[in-house]
Amino acid sequence: MPVVVFLTGAGGAFASTVSKTADSTMVPGHRFDPSASEVKCIEVAQCSTIEGAECTWNSEVLREKINDTACGVPLYRVN
Questions:
Q1: Domain housing 44
Q2: Contact 21, 28 (CB under 8 A)
Q3: Source organism's superkingdom (predicted)?
C-alpha cells in the first residue's frame, strides 16, 4: 500500500511540474496597429515562446511587446 501512495504522489508532482513549465512559456501575443492613437502594440491572443508554427491573428504574425509603440520578436502557436 505505501508503494502505491508514493507512486501516486510522484506522478502528481511530475504533472504539476510539467504544467508550470508550460505556463511559463505562455506570453501575450501583440499585433502592431499603426492607426492606433497612443498604444500601437495591442494584445490580441496568448502565444508561446517555444518555436513552432507562427502565432497569427487575421493572417498577421503576433509578436512580443517591447513597449506601447513597438512589438518585437515573433511568437508561436500554442500546442
A1: 26-77
A2: no
A3: Bacteria
* C-alpha cell, 71: 512589438
State the Cα–Cα distance between residues 21 and 38, nearest whole angstrom. 34
**Which tens digit of pLDDT belongs to each residue from 9-57?**
444 544 444 444 556 789 999 999 999 999 999 999 999 999 999 999 9
Give pLDDT, residue 2. 55
54 backbone dihedrals φ, ψ, rounded to 5°: -65, 140
Secondary structure (DSSP) of the chain: -HHHHHHHHHHHHHHHHHHHHHHHTEEEEEEE-TTSSS--EEEEEEEESSSSSBPEETTEEPEEEEETTEEEEE-B---
Residue 6 included in any domain: no
- Overall number of domains in the chain: 1
Q: Kindly state whether residue 16 falls inside one of the protein's structural domains.
A: no
